[in-house]
Design a protein that fits this description.
It is built from 19 helices and two strands. The protein is mainly alpha-helical.
Length: 430
């Protein structure tokens, strides 16, 4: 009774707080808005792969090479000669992810407020481009339009909407006769919030240039670097993921709460790897999007291994839930297991639910570090089968084999705890 009372108290404290965070419109806008850029960066990444065929020309010997290696060598020579032409789609997709995200976040938040989402999104896009593209020696510097500007895109996307909303709330509009067409009225009444946003953000940008000799995005990144280093460290990442999984144990969607943090971090780190790859350098950012995918492989708690155990269980109910959960689990959707088994408020399965993702992430981190698998360099689409994501993240088949191994590692972690639960259920049935 005492243990149950403690669980009830924790649930009473955590549930309202986490539900409030999960339904918070600004966090939702960040999550939804970031999705706007995914189709562009997925396609753009393939052009980067095409421009960098996997062959080391220093070890290539045309006299002993087979047909396939000769093909790769010819491909490499063509790619080097036409690198700028081939990577142009990459530069204008992945290279402007910050710009696209600024629009997406502003559009999503404006939609939440029932405002003119398209126009508000365009205002955020213009403001973001204005403060993130300094002119250096007569040329526009695009450095902060990409992954370097993601955090600034979040700031601009959210604040621009709030400023425009303030004008709506205060009804600061130009009075027009009813005979004026609606589109003309929208155009005219957009002028004031647009002007205010430009003056405010560009004025702040000029102030930063004068006082710190840095543009606003550069200064923001300098301030955020310590925080992102903590979240981007192995320990920090494991802590964030574990906190999200603890919320799941109380029936709260912890993944949706940590998503804005780990997804933005993962995209940024993957973007850095892509830039290193484009420059012919070693890819050194291990806390990339691939790590986030591993943290939710099979769903929160790495439950795909548990599903395999359930499918062979002696308990008919477990077998049924396992079979129904397999396909969703392959696509990292595991609510049927979490609520159907259940894992929620289950003290027996809570231990492997928290432990399995940590073990998987540690193995993935060190596998990248010792080059056992490819480092994540491509931003792959969400909710595709985990083995497809494993390949698309790096275009390396070793990653597919590695993730399959992780499924069985998770199964081994869950095994003794699941057997205890299965034994208890069988005893209860008898």
């Amino acid at each position: 009774m005492e243990n149950g009372s403690m669980v009830d108290k924790l649930n009473g404290v955590l549930s309202p707080l986490a539900a409030k965070l999960g339904n918070q419109r600004h966090l939702r806008a960040i999550s939804t808005g970031m999705m706007f850029s995914l189709p562009f960066i997925v396609i753009g990444s393939f052009f980067l792969i095409f421009a960098n065929p996997s062959i080391n020309m220093e070890q290539y010997n045309p006299e002993t090479a087979n047909v396939f290696m000769r093909f790769l060598a010819a491909w490499k020579e063509f790619a080097v000669a036409n690198y700028d032409l081939i990577t142009a789609p990459y530069n204008l997709t992945m290279g402007i992810i910050g710009l696209i995200s600024a629009f997406g976040i502003a559009y999503s938040l404006a939609n939440e407020y029932k405002m003119n989402a398209a126009m508000t999104g365009m205002i955020a896009t213009v403001v973001y481009a204005m403060i993130c593209t300094p002119v250096v020696e007569g040329k526009i510097d695009l450095n902060y339009l990409g992954t370097n500007g993601l955090f600034v895109a979040i700031i601009v996307g959210l604040l621009v909407v709030e400023i425009c909303r303030w004008f709506d709330i205060k009804e600061i509009k130009i009075s027009l006769p009813e005979s004026v067409p609606p589109m003309v009225a929208v155009f005219i009444n957009t002028l004031i919030p647009l002007l205010v946003n430009i003056v405010l953000f560009y004025g702040i940008n000029i102030l930063f240039i004068v006082t710190t000799d840095q543009i606003f995005p550069e200064a923001v990144m300098q301030v955020l670097t310590p925080a992102t280093n903590i979240a981007g460290s192995l320990g920090g990442f494991l802590l964030i993921v574990t906190l999200g999984n603890i919320l799941w144990l109380f029936g709260i969607n912890g993944s949706s709460i940590i998503f804005p943090i780990v997804f933005t971090l993962g995209i940024t780190q993957t973007g850095y790897n892509a830039e290193q790859m484009a420059s012919g350098e070693a890819m050194t950012h291990l806390m990339n999007l691939q790590m986030f995918r591993i943290s939710v492989m099979g769903g929160a708690g790495a439950t795909l291994g548990l599903i395999l155990l359930m499918m062979r269980s002696k308990v008919r109910e477990f077998r049924t839930i396992g079979k129904l959960s397999l396909i969703p689990g392959i696509c990292s959707i595991n609510e049927p297991v979490i609520f159907g088994l259940p894992i929620v408020l289950n003290p027996i399965l809570a231990i492997p639910f928290l432990t399995a993702p940590v073990v998987n992430l540690l193995l993935t981190y060190f596998a990248q570090k010792i080059h056992l698998i490819g480092v994540g360099v491509i931003i792959d689409p969400s909710f595709t089968p985990f083995f497809a994501q494993a390949y698309l993240s790096s275009m390396d088949w070793r990653n597919v084999v590695f993730t399959l191994v992780l499924v069985f590692v998770s199964a081994a972690i869950y095994y003794p705890f699941f057997k205890v639960m299965e034994k208890n259920r069988l005893a209860a049935e008898k």
